[in-house]
Design brief:
- This protein is 61% helix and 0% strand.
- By secondary structure, it is an all-alpha fold.
- It has a domain of 89 residues: Serine Threonine Protein Phosphatase 5, Tetratricopeptide repeat.
């Protein structure tokens, strides 16, 4: 009997798990769908926008949400909106300053490569 009471107490306390410290807004599921179907970029971008808005409203924005949203905006050619997201990421997460400054520099470029798929650095190089 004591054994069952102890197990019951453990299960009761385990079910009172603390909610996530950050607002992710369905990020994992939308990222998975986007990886499976890259043509669904608009839906993924909208999900990121929603996650950023929810996080900002609650003061619990997850790290990287604004950066990811900014990247998706940049690849869609929406540079001004992307810059605002990169600045938001930098403001919320100062440790991202170096990366966000690089992304801001990329978004400020007027080159035609913005909006194209980035290939891995080793793509097309022969094995040595």
């Amino acid at each position: 009997m004591i054994r069952f009471s102890l197990i019951g107490a453990i299960l009761l306390f385990a079910s009172c798990a603390k909610p996530s410290h950050y607002e992710w807004g369905g990020y994992e599921e939308s990222l998975y769908k986007y990886y499976k179907d890259p043509g669904a970029a608009d839906a993924y971008t909208e999900q990121l926008a929603q996650a950023a808005r929810q996080g900002d409203a609650t003061g619990r924005t997850a790290p990287g949400i604004h950066a990811e949203y900014g990247y998706m905006l940049m690849t869609a050619g929406r540079r001004a909106d992307a810059l605002a997201e990169f600045e938001a990421e930098k403001r919320l997460w100062p440790e991202s300053t170096v990366l966000m400054d690089r992304m801001i520099g990329l978004a400020n470029r007027k080159s035609p490569d913005v909006g194209t798929t980035v290939q891995p650095a080793m793509a097309g190089k022969p094995d040595s």
